[in-house]
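Lecture notes, continued. The same structure-token format from the folding unit now serves as the input rather than the output. Read the line below as a description of shape only.
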């Protein structure tokens, strides 16, 4: 088959690598180079870097509605277009090009968490499991019929970054299963999504990572996991804005302390913070202008400053 692949971030790379190993795509669609890093230097997407490394044709349109890009795609005579975290909605003119339509590998158990941030939202909500849905795309946002579903549990201390790495590999496995079934003419009948059960996963903004100490410690701990590695949870603590990378919730309710106050601990061995419900046990964090450090290191530095 002539397969087109569309993807952009690191999450997409295992799926592209699977195609490279089994059936190299006739072209790869990805987002244009973007400024990145402190120097804001134009940087190619992870997918583009992998595609160029293997000599694949790369297309980086800013829109899929221009006649020029449509003509280029049509000339490739695609049988199937596969997307994984591409970042652009496919218009009807593109959806109708491939003989077998367009497939999307979405990192949730659809119809739960349609949208741009399914991994983060699953952690924020305290979901016990998530997975990959292989979907036959339509004009809606993750509304198409589901062809295959692969499930996986979410560990109690798993960050979004760690879960993303596992789901990226699971996405590649799911595509391999789908392609095998398609080629053997054994693809399961598409299952319509129950729209009434749909939940939305909006694009993450930096401000979403701001911690409100009045919330329960369990919710705050999930927020810290969901926003690691980006945009990283942050809050006011002891008069400064700190970034927090990992923490756990404790059910004990400190007496006489307001949310956001540090709970005294013997020998400064633990950094405990009072919350609206329970306490947060912070494991590692970062103060402005300083390196990331353990809670014990942070407490020691604070004690040194207060002498």
């Amino acid at each position: 088959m002539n397969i087109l692949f569309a993807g952009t971030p690191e999450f997409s790379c295992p799926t592209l690598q699977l195609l490279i190993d089994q059936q190299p795509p006739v072209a790869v669609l990805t987002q244009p180079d973007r400024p990145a890093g402190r120097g804001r230097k134009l940087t190619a997407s992870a997918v583009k870097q992998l595609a160029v490394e293997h000599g694949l044709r790369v297309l980086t349109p800013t829109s899929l509605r221009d006649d020029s890009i449509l003509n280029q795609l049509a000339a490739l005579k695609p049988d199937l277009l596969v997307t994984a975290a591409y970042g652009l909605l496919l218009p009807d003119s593109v959806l109708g090009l491939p003989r077998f339509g367009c497939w999307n590998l979405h990192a949730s158990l659809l119809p739960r968490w349609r949208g741009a941030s399914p991994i983060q939202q699953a952690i924020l909500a305290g979901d016990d499991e998530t997975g990959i849905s292989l979907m036959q795309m339509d004009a809606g946002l993750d509304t198409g019929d589901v062809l295959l579903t692969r499930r996986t549990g979410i560990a109690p201390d798993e960050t979004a970054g760690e879960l993303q790495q596992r789901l990226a590999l699971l996405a590649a496995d799911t595509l391999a299963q789908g392609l095998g079934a398609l080629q053997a003419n054994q693809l399961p009948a598409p299952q319509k999504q129950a729209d009434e059960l749909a939940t939305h996963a909006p694009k993450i903004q930096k401000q979403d990572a701001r911690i409100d100490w009045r919330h329960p410690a369990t919710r705050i701990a999930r927020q810290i996991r969901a926003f690691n590695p980006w945009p990283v949870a942050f809050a006011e603590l002891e008069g400064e804005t700190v970034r927090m990378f990992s923490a756990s919730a404790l059910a004990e309710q400190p007496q006489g302390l307001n949310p956001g106050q540090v709970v005294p601990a013997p020998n400064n061995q633990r950094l405990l913070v009072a919350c609206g419900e329970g306490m947060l046990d912070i494991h590692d964090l970062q103060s402005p202008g300083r390196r990331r450090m353990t809670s014990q290191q942070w407490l020691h530095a604070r004690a040194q400053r207060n002498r």
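Point for the exam: The chain has eight helices and 17 strands.
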